[in-house]
Write a structure and sequence with these properties.
By secondary structure, the chain is mainly β.
Length: 616
């Protein structure tokens, strides 16, 4: 764990009659944490002696990493100025800023790489068989907080008074790591079970590869003066970016001929998770007892950008390719499973409040300006494939399951709230301008394919298969989006009020791009000999939900009506868009010498969308 903090304090107090007072504070922290290593567990370069064969009772090759970065950073700044001189002007500036960066890189590999000229024989039927596993449980967790506080108080009757505060926090997390488990040999025989698996989660799903980021920023500016204008300016901003890139997940077996007495399982399981929150809060207070009025200006912003990138592949392939296809014989069950359960939880929120008051002598303008914005952008991308290919024959004693499935999920929330208020005891005009906007954009792109191609499929000794044959491709991606924006401006006292407020909320969920994501299940070959159930199904059940709301209000209540024009104008708008672009297909081909008990080929589209929007 790394902890970094910075704190700056400036305090000024003066009683001189004609001296300008300045207070400056800065709290700045920058952290940068990096892990860069490649992890390999590999058997390679073994010739196997005169017969070019490696013989073992059992063989386990495993690569696991739990790389972890935990970082915390805070930057704080406080400035206080108090002047009692007759003509002293006061200007305060305070800034709290934090930037935290973390990266984990380096590929993970578990492999038996004997190449195209060496055989592998696993001979102990009562033992562990052949197991090749690669598991990446890397984690990055980052916290950043920036706070800026400033206060100025002056007693001068003819001098301005200003307080400016800015708080900013940024986080950037990057993970770049491919995870591979593979077994390659010329001929592979095994008397026990065979397992090749690559994953970004542990066996019971209690731990995942993950990126976590929490960023917060706060700023408070308070200016109080008896003379000329009192000006308060506060700005708070946070940005969070989490990215996984070059992070393909792959589990493969490649051989010319495979003869396996036990079960065969090839699995690739992606379960990466991102949790990200960005929040900002800003407050500006200005008070003046002079003629010029008080000005309070506030800006607040929060931005979250998350991206999970990488292909997921589980495959069995003949080593000679289509030109020289191989053979596979499995006495037990055969499963090739690729699954994508990656998830993103994101929240962006900003709150801003400005308050200005002017005394009975005020005859100028009382100004309040308030702007808040929250943005969330989330992307999950990459192809998913489960396949058996480049085999001339495939014989089974049990069941066959080839499945490519997605259960990717995004939960995204963006909220922006902005409020300003002005009060005057004099004859000045109140001006209030306020704007709030919130947006969330979520995207998923990538094809999902499950296929068995090019093989004559039968039971052992060329008998019909009695077990179930399933080739399944499914996409159950879920997007849930909530976006809210609220603004309010109000004034009381003075001769008149000009108030304008705008609130906007936008949400967009998109699955697919261009011609759309392909969702395909295919079983095709030179022959299919089965008396069991055969099903080839491509099923789309994506769910896209978007709820948006926007509200804006303006209220002016002058108590000294003058000759000026009073204006109150508000606008609120929201839009929610769900788009699903999919190409869904199934393919069942090849001759059948026996009638299956059940033969199904389905292409199902059961997607659901829901839009809720409101504005006031």
């Amino acid at each position: 764990m790394l902890f970094r903090s910075g704190f700056a304090l400036a305090v000024n107090r003066s009683q001189a009659e004609q001296t300008a007072q300045r207070g400056v504070g800065l709290g700045l922290v920058v952290t940068n944490n990096t892990i860069n290593d490649a992890i390999q567990a590999q058997i390679q370069g073994v010739s196997g002696g005169a017969d070019n064969a490696v013989t073992v009772g059992g063989l386990t090759v495993s690569a696991t990493t739990t790389r972890r970065i935990q970082a915390q950073a805070t930057g704080d700044s406080l400035t206080l100025t108090n002047s009692q001189g007759d003509e002293n002007s006061i200007s305060n500036l305070t800034i709290g800023a934090v930037q935290a960066s973390a990266s984990v890189s380096g590929d993970l590999l578990a492999a038996v790489a004997l190449g195209s000229g060496t055989d592998l024989h696993v001979t102990n039927g009562a033992g562990q068989g052949l197991s090749v596993t690669s598991t990446d449980l890397s984690q990055i967790s980052t916290f950043a907080l920036a706070v800026a506080l400033t206060s100025s108080q002056g007693e001068a009757f003819s001098a301005p008074n200003a307080a400016l505060a800015g708080g900013g926090a940024g986080i950037s997390n990057l993970l770049s790591s491919a995870t591979t488990a593979s077994a390659q040999a010329r001929n592979l025989t095994n008397k026990a079970a065979t397992r090749v698996a690559a994953a970004t989660t542990n066996a019971n799903n209690s731990q995942r590869r993950s990126l976590t980021a929490n960023a917060g920023a706060g700023s408070v500016a308070a200016a109080r003066g008896r003379g000329e204008a009192g000006d308060g300016l506060a700005i708070g901003a946070t940005t969070v970016a989490n990215t996984t890139t070059d992070s393909d997940l792959e589990a493969t077996i490649t051989a010319s001929n495979l003869v396996l007495d036990g079960d065969l399982a090839v699995t690739a399981t992606a379960a990466d998770q991102i949790e990200a929150v960005a929040a900002s809060a800003s407050l500006a207070v200005a008070r003046s007892a002079g003629q010029d009025g008080a000005n309070a200006l506030v800006g607040g912003g929060a931005s979250v950008t998350n991206s999970l990138q990488g292909d997921v592949t589980a495959s069995i392939a003949g080593q000679g390719g289509q030109a020289s296809p191989g053979s596979l014989s499995v006495q037990g069950d055969l499963s090739v499973l690729a699954s994508d359960g990656r998830a993103i939880q994101a929240g962006a929120g900003s709150g801003s409040l400005s308050l200005s008051t002017a005394g009975e002598q005020a005859s100028g303008t009382n100004l309040s300006i308030d702007v808040g914005a929250s943005l969330a952008s989330n992307t999950i991308s990459g192809d998913l494939s489960a396949s058996i290919s480049d085999l001339a024959s495939l014989s089974l004693g049990g069941t066959l399951e080839v499945s490519g499935s997605r259960q990717a999920a995004v939960q995204s929330t963006a909220v922006a709230v902005a409020i300003n208020a002005a009060r005057s005891g004099g004859s000045n005009t109140e001006i209030g301008l306020i704007g709030g906007g919130a947006s969330s954009t979520n995207t998923h792109t990538g094809n999902t394919v499950a296929q068995v191609s090019g093989a004559a499929i039968s039971g052992l000794s060329n008998t019909p298969i009695t077990g179930t044959i399933s080739v399944l491709a499914s996409d159950a991606t879920t997007f849930t989006t909530n976006v809210d924006s609220a603004t309010a401006t109000g004034s009381s006292g003075g001769e008149g009020a000009d108030l304008v407020g705008i609130g906007v909320a936008l949400a967009t969920n998109t699955v697919g791009s261009g011609d759309g994501n392909q969702l395909q299940a295919s079983l095709s070959g030179t022959g299919l000999l089965s008396t069991g159930a055969v099903e080839v199904i491509a099923s789309n059940s994506t769910s896209l939900k978007a709820e948006v709301s926007a509200a804006s209000a303006a209220v002016g209540a002058p108590d000294r009506p003058g000759s000026g024009l009073g204006l109150s104008a508000t606008g609120a708008g929201c839009e929610a868009t769900n788009v699903s672009l999919m190409q869904i297909s199934t393919d069942l081909g090849g001759a059948s010498a026996a009638s299956p008990a059940l033969l199904q080929a389905w292409a199902l589209d059961r997607k659901s969308t829901r839009l809720n929007s409101s504005h006031t």
